[in-house]
């Protein structure tokens, strides 16, 4: 079983997303187990403080090292092989390849911060720092939930059809998914591309790859001749 631990000040944040859809089914099927660890339980002062003002001045509060490092130690005690990931906007970019890499670990521990971030010394106690993208969320929790979701759906036996994971956008590194259509054949004057109705599988395959490359080039730039020599 894949074991995910979440270090957070807001364990309740994860309740609804984990009780819907694919994560719910994966938990019920015993493929994944998710445990939240409340960082505040490791506060060392009598006011249970987990944050403090930054040295050198500036706005906002930082997560203090003592409770966070104690929570990381607890996570490692519970799961000595766990891979500890800090969620921070200044981490390396999370990708589909990284999600796939995480499925090969015995488990992951996702460290979520609030306030303006973490005391830098905490970084020495984690295995890597991951960012969801170049924007700032109000905390690590939404980022951790995205990472967890992306990992869970890639675990063996989670998706009904193993093909759907393989055929995902990004399974070919950096190439976006092609456009998809379902019934009706015409909606408000917009027709499904003829080739998809043709039954010609080679032509459909070719069209899909062309569309994926065009879309990638248009939306992300410079990927149009990815697999062309
Ligand atoms: N915490 C706040 N913003 C974040 C981001 N973009 N990615 C990961 N963790 C975050």
From TrEMBL:
CDD domains: TrmD-like. Residues 5-220 form the tRNA methyltransferase TRMD/TRM10-type domain. It is found in: Cytoplasm. Specifically methylates guanosine-37 in various tRNAs. Homodimer. InterPro entries: Alpha/beta_knot_MTases, tRNA_m1G_MeTrfase_C_sf, tRNA_m1G_MeTrfase_TrmD, tRNA_m1G_MTases_N, tRNA_MeTrfase_TRMD/TRM10. Its main location: cytoplasm. It catalyses: guanosine(37) in tRNA + S-adenosyl-L-methionine = N(1)-methylguanosine(37) in tRNA + S-adenosyl-L-homocysteine + H(+). Belongs to the RNA methyltransferase TrmD family. Its EC number is 2.1.1.228. Transmembrane segments: none annotated. One of its GO terms (biological process) is tRNA N1-guanine methylation. S-adenosyl-L-methionine binds at residues 113, 132-137. This is tRNA (guanine-N(1)-)-methyltransferase. It is an enzyme of class 2 (transferase). Keywords: Cytoplasm, Methyltransferase, S-adenosyl-L-methionine, Transferase, tRNA processing. GO terms for cellular component: cytosol. One of its GO terms (molecular function) is tRNA (guanine(37)-N1)-methyltransferase activity. It comes from Mariprofundus ferrinatatus. Signal peptide: none annotated.
């Amino acid at each position: 079983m894949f074991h995910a631990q979440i270090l957070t000040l807001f364990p309740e944040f994860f309740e609804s997303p984990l009780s819907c859809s694919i994560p719910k089914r994966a938990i019920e099927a015993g493929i994944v187990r998710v445990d939240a660890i409340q960082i505040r339980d490791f506060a060392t002062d009598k006011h249970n403080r987990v944050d403090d003002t930054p040295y050198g001045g500036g706005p906002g509060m930082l997560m203090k090292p003592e409770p966070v490092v104690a929570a990381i130690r607890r996570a490692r005690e519970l799961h000595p092989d766990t891979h500890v990931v800090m969620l921070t906007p200044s981490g390396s970019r999370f990708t589909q390849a990284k999600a796939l890499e995480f499925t090969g670990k015995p488990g992951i521990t996702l460290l979520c911060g609030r306030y303006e971030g973490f005391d830098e010394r905490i970084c020495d106690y984690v295995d890597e720092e991951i960012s969801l993208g170049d924007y700032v969320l109000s905390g690590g929790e939404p980022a951790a939930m995205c990472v967890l979701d992306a990992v869970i759906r890639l675990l063996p036996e989670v998706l009904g059809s193993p093909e759907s994971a393989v055929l995902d956008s990004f399974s070919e590194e950096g190439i976006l998914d092609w456009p998809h259509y379902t019934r009706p054949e015409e909606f408000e004057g917009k027709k499904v591309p003829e080739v998809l109705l043709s039954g010609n599988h080679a032509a459909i395959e070719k069209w899909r790859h062309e569309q994926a490359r065009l879309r990638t080039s248009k939306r992300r730039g410079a990927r149009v001749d990815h697999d062309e020599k």
